[in-house]
């Protein structure tokens, strides 16, 4: 009886030592790996008892089936037998296919994305992402995209304010404005702002925008053909919309319409000038005219 107990004790000690020595000298086995949506070379399956279990330090290559990749995004992977088993654990992850998106667009034209790869998208004017921004980014994860990209209509919000001719919005222009927000318009140099300079976002629409009316630039040729000169000297021949312009006739000429008060006065009207006309003034009988004509 005592002899049997001694044998059992020595057996336990021997197995423990063998296990420790096996681990130290590279004899820890790794069995045939089971890879979902992946596989190894066919001959490993055909001669499983010959190749497996593999010892510590042995390496093995595997491939993912179509539509799947390794964690690093490649089609093929390589694993090593360690004391804890295969490292890294062989896994195949499904690729992420570009998701559908309404009222927005993606920056990338690719259709398939590897694990951890990111996809950026933006929403059309008047629409926002789930986070309330105009654009966002989703990431391909093992279970699929980090979230479903979407663009929702912004109730009450306004898109960028309208562009006006010969004018601009003062300050930076945003892609979206909350209900009640306002912007201010300014006109280009010499242009006259007609209408409200401040417009408001009201329940998704902007209030009436102003108009920038063109200035009038006097044409010297037109002035000469009508025998006109400016009554008041000025460096520039530019007048804003609505400005009064006063002419006088050249020496020896008089205005055609003398019955109206201030016949030499006209007004700039959205870039257009109606020039008054001066004719040659006649002298007394039997005397020459006070001006000459180029016939």
UniProtKB/TrEMBL annotation:
Signal peptide feature range: 1-26
UniProt keyword terms in alphabetical order: Disulfide bond, Signal, Sushi
CDD domains linked to this entry: CCP
PROSITE patterns: SUSHI
Matching Pfam families: Sushi (PF00084)
Any GO BP: blood coagulation
Gene3D superfamilies referenced in this protein's UniProt entry, alphabetically: Complement Module, domain 1
Domain Sushi residue range list: 94-153, 156-214
Disulfide bonds: 158-201
Record-given protein name: Coagulation factor XIII B chain
Native source species: Serinus canaria (Island canary)
The organism's taxonomic lineage, starting at the top: Eukaryota, Metazoa, Chordata, Craniata, Vertebrata
């Amino acid at each position: 009886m005592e002899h049997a107990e001694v044998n059992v004790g020595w057996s336990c000690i021997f197995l423990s030592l063998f296990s420790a020595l096996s681990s130290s000298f590279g004899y820890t086995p790794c069995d045939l790996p089971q890879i979902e949506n992946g596989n190894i070379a066919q001959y490993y399956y055909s001669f499983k008892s010959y190749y497996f279990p593999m010892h510590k330090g042995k390496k093995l290559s595997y491939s993912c089936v179509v539509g799947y990749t390794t964690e690093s995004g490649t089609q093929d992977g390589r694993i090593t037998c360690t004391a804890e088993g295969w490292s890294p654990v062989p896994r195949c992850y499904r690729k992420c296919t570009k998701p559908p998106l309404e009222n927005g667009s993606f920056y990338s034209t690719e259709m398939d994305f590897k694990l951890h790869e990111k996809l950026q998208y933006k929403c059309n004017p008047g629409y926002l992402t789930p986070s309330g921004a105009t654009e966002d980014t989703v990431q391909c994860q093992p279970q699929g995209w980090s979230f479903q990209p979407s663009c929702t209509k912004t109730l009450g919000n306004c898109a960028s304010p309208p562009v006006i001719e010969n004018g601009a919005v003062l300050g930076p222009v945003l892609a979206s404005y909350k209900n009640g927000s306002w912007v201010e318009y300014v006109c280009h140099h010499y242009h006259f702002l007609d209408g409200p300079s401040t417009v408001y976002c009201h329940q998704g629409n902007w209030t009436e925008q102003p108009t920038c009316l063109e200035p009038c630039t006097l044409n010297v040729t037109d002035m000469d053909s009508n025998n006109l000169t400016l009554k008041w000297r000025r460096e520039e021949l530019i007048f804003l919309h609505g400005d009064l312009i006063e002419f006088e006739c050249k020496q020896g000429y008089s205005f055609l319409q003398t019955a109206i008060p201030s016949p030499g006065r006209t007004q700039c009207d959205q870039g257009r000038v109606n020039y008054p006309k001066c004719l040659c003034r006649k002298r007394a009988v039997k005397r020459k005219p006070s001006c000459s004509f180029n016939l």
